[in-house]
Design goal:
Layout lengths: L6 H23 L3 H33 L10 H5 L4 H7 L3 H4 L8 E2 L5 E2 L5 E4 L18 E6 L9 E11 L2 E16 L4 E5 L4
Antiparallel strand pairs: 1-2, 3-4, 4-6, 5-6, 6-7
């Protein structure tokens, strides 16, 4: 004699499937610590690159309005602030924050380590201070702005992560390489991320 399964008999099984599916979904959807850290570093680096692009454009606009002459390196931030209105609107940040590297702010790293100490900012290449644009030999290769520490030294403060899958005798395995990088903006508006070894 066959027994019929009733809704009452199937309820615990259905509940177990729903709860098990929810737990599985939560575990898969939750960012892993390395993924969260990589996302954080990528976000910081991406914001820095955006800042540099807008700053290079603002420096060129300033030069156009001042007879082709770049601002003085000592007060370039104040000189370009009036040219950052559109950038501030697009980035949803005050112009005063765009002239500083995002790492300048004291923030918390995904591992709970405080990052930034208010000493990081961008510096203008001293050799371009007050210089006429037409006298610069190769604008595409001439760094205009760079990541710098409080003492003005060129510094690689961002982390770039390269996520690759390698295949060997044991099969495929994932490899994540971290590399400190510095961000520079050239006179022609190009932004580069230079590895610490290239500095």
């Amino acid at each position: 004699m066959r027994k019929r399964l009733t809704a009452r008999a199937l309820a615990p099984l259905a509940l177990a499937l729903v709860v098990g599916g929810a737990v599985l979904f939560f575990c898969m959807a939750r960012p892993k610590p390395l993924e969260a850290e990589a996302k954080w570093h990528g976000h910081q680096l991406g914001r820095c690159v955006q800042h540099m692009r807008y700053l290079a454009a603002a420096m060129n606009e300033y030069a156009r309005d001042h007879g082709g002459r770049l601002p003085d390196a000592a007060d370039w931030q104040a000189a370009v602030l009036p040219y950052l209105g559109n950038a501030a609107a697009e980035l949803h940040e005050p112009a005063e924050e765009i002239v500083k590297c995002p790492a300048w702010r004291t923030e918390t790293h995904p591992r709970g380590v405080p990052m930034g100490n208010g000493e990081y900012s961008y510096k203008m290449a001293p050799g371009l201070s007050g210089r006429l644009l037409q006298t610069v030999p190769d604008p595409a290769r001439q760094p205009l702005l760079y990541d710098a520490s409080a003492d003005g030294a060129f510094t690689a403060r961002h982390i770039s992560r390269l996520d690759t899958t390698l295949v060997d005798e044991a099969g495929p395995h994932r490899q994540i390489q971290e590399q400190p990088v510095a961000v520079t903006a050239c006179l022609d508006g190009r932004v580069d991320c230079l590895a610490a070894a290239e500095l």
